[in-house]
Amino acid sequence: MHSSLSLNLFACRALIVGMTGEFPLPARPRLVGVANFALGGLNRLALVPDHPLDLDALCDIARRETGLDDFGDPWFLRPLEVLIEALREEASLNAIGRFAAVGQFLKVLRERLWTQHWFDTHPEILGEPLAPPVIVVGPMRSGTTRLHRLLAADDRFEHMRFFETVCPVPEPGFRPGKRDPRPRQAGRLLSTVHRLNPRTAVIHPTGPFEPEEELGLLVQSAWGMKHEAQWRIPTYGRWAEEEDATPAYRHLARLLRLVRWARGETARRKPWVLKTPQHMLDLPALLSVFPEAKLIFIHRDPAKVVGSSCSLVWNQMTIHSNEADPHWIGDHWLDKTGLQIDRMQAARSRIHPQQRIDVLYRDMDADWEAVMRRVYRFLDMDIAPALPSMRQYVDKATRQHRWQRHRYDLASFGLDDKTVRGRFERYANTFDLQPKPARPDMKPVLQGTRRALA
């Protein structure tokens, strides 16, 4: 019965797409509504702790739970305070949203205390140098994940793994090289997310040990667009756009040292390969902390970037609020994508050409090996040792996601191709991002991966 219903729903959606060219905005999974109702009842019965969304109260709880009291650089308390205030005033959180927010903030506060504990008890962690990293820079949904995972396939680089970005700080008592509970914790979290909203696995497929962006290291400073992609908090977004992000990136660099120390691999000192769309807004801060980094900029048709971004945000925001507004999401993420691109272009013009390279999403689809060979010439590295692992990644991704496709439609968010491309006309012309007519004899080499990561 369940399989038949699923097939009928799929057929209906396919019919709508075929007749109109549009894909209907997916409804929130029913399990989310059930979980919201159940969690609300547990809160009313006082069976689940109902901690206040209050910074001082949450700090006190974290101190009591850990027995520690030093959060390190106090800079992060200001963005956290602004974020909490915006959540109270603007986000219209449901029971799940409020539970997730409190849980996330308590986790950050505990891990800030644990981080300083490790630095105090093992000062050698911060004494370890970091080699200049290779950093992928692009807007949300521009193909940064695929490019990052191809580079991560090369064992001459270090890369973050999913469990390390979700749980970057081990608890006190942990010993490097010994049993680590964090992968299992991250796996349970991922399973919960996928059960609540299976579309998450299509939009951004991952696993506990898969290469992942360092977004969680910026979350440790309550910093970044990640929060805006989860909650409706425009006040926080506008505030952060005017702030200097350098303290958040300094802490990110400290956490990279801690992550490497926790692996028990401090002697290797390989360069990190990093990526997160937040870097688009923060390139001056990023380069002040990593002045010798090599930057790989990736560019995609802005209409696809905005549409895919809105779909991702809708997918997350409907979990945390019963009042998610797709047209508000469209307006906000059109503006946010514009700001990302404007700031990237301004900062990019001041970076020496020998420190940066530009690649196109379209070219990655057509011939990823040719693009990666060009990237490796830029890095002054021989690509040959990495190609077998890269091809293995591509084959695996293609098999896993052959029948999955992230569908979205700008009209669902009150937008259209003409409006979006008009906003980014200068940028699109600079990098030749206008859509090309499809050739009937061309088949993208990475069709399955493209569908999964679009």
TrEMBL record:
Organism in which the protein naturally occurs: Novosphingobium malaysiense
Signal peptide stretch: none
Protein's UniProt name: Sulfotransferase
Segments crossing the lipid bilayer: none
Any one Gene Ontology molecular-function term assigned to this protein's record: transferase activity
One Pfam entry name: Sulfotransfer_3
Alphabetized UniProt keyword annotations: Transferase
PANTHER family linked: OMEGA-HYDROXY-BETA-DIHYDROMENAQUINONE-9 SULFOTRANSFERASE STF3, PAPS-DEPENDENT SULFOTRANSFERASE STF3
InterPro entries the record matches: P-loop_NTPase, Stf3_sulfotransferase
Statement: the UniProt record of this protein carries the keyword Transmembrane: no
